[in-house]
């Protein structure tokens, strides 16, 4: 793709300035009308707040006097500036105005240009308003719930509380979260939740452990210190180990690692 020539760029720039000039003129006219309407409404409200007829007449006189004084000062200032420009004393003002208008029109000629809407006086820019004009109430965000358990949390909890299966509520209590969050974590890992039986707790919804455990929930030596009964030991290192039954709790089995220094029992 070849770069545009100088003439092509100039034509595009001139077209863009022409489009932007019409947009700026229309936007300026709209803002002028809006400001005039706003001033009229404020003046009308100020006069309407008068306590009696005399107060209303006094306020009307003040408004008319202020309008006449503003018109007189504005007319004299405009005529004085016009004579200064016509005489050549302010020749630079025409160039400055032309350059400023050309830059503004070039920016307004962009296809994605949007006019800036002036905020009403006294309004807080942070307050959003609905289409009916009524400010929308700030919606307080609900506090975040318990964190979602990770697969390591589920694996460790199943290895420590499973007999060998574990209920969802028991896993949640051990992890320190809610059963709903445990279900979300299990669903995210596509681990089936089904009725299982825990020793001493009966039957309820949970996950299977032991040989029937999901591959993602298989215990690892790095994650667990105590392996539940029926779950296979997973030794990824070259150290030997011995499974020692727990005489107090028969459903638990201690892993005794054989190291060169001493036998380390992980509880």
Give a short synopsis of this structure.
By secondary structure, the protein is of the alpha+beta class. 46% of the residues lie in helices and 12% in strands. The protein starts with 5 loop residues before the first helix and ends with a strand.
What does this structure look like?
A hairpin with a 4-residue loop joins β6 (252-258) and β7. The longest helix is centred in the first third of the chain and has 43 residues, at 6-48. The protein has two domains: 14-108, no CATH class; 151-266, no CATH class. The chain has helices at 6-48, 53-86, 91-108, 151-161, 168-175, 179-188, and strands spanning 166-167, 194-198, 202-207, 226-228, 240-245, 252-258, 263-266. It has 267 residues and is of the alpha+beta class. The strands form two sheets. Strands 4, 5, 6 and 7 form a four-stranded antiparallel sheet that branches. It has a three-stranded antiparallel sheet with strand order 1-3-2. It is elongated. α1 packs antiparallel against α2 (53-86), α4 (151-161) crosses α5 (168-175) and α5 crosses α6 (179-188).
Features:
alpha+beta; 267 residues; 2 domains; single chain; four-stranded antiparallel sheet; 7 strands; three-stranded antiparallel sheet
């Amino acid at each position: 793709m070849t770069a545009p020539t100088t003439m092509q760029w100039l034509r595009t720039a001139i077209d863009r300035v022409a489009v932007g000039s019409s947009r700026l003129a229309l936007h300026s006219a709209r803002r002028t009308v809006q400001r005039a309407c706003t001033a009229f409404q404020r003046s009308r409200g100020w006069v309407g707040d008068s306590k009696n007829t005399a107060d209303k007449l006094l306020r009307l006189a003040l408004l008319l006097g202020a309008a006449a004084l503003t018109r007189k000062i504005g007319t004299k200032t405009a005529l004085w500036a016009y004579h200064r420009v016509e005489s050549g004393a302010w020749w630079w003002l025409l160039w400055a105005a032309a350059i400023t208008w050309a830059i503004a029109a070039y920016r307004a000629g962009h296809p994605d240009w949007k006019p800036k809407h002036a905020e009403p006086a006294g309004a807080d820019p942070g307050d959003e308003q609905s289409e009916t004009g009524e400010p929308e109430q700030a919606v307080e965000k609900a506090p975040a719930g318990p964190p979602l358990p990770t697969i390591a949390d589920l694996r460790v909890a199943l290895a420590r509380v499973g007999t060998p299966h574990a209920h969802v509520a028991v896993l949640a209590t051990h992890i320190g979260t809610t059963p709903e969050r445990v279900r979300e974590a299990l669903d995210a890992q596509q681990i089936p939740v089904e009725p299982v039986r825990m020793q001493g707790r009966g039957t309820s919804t949970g996950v299977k452990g032991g040989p029937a455990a999901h591959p993602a929930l298989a215990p690892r030596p790095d994650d667990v210190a105590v392996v539940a009964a029926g779950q296979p030991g997973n030794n990824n290192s070259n150290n030997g180990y011995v499974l020692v039954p727990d005489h107090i709790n028969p459903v638990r089995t201690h892993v005794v690692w054989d190291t060169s220094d001493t036998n380390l029992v992980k509880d």
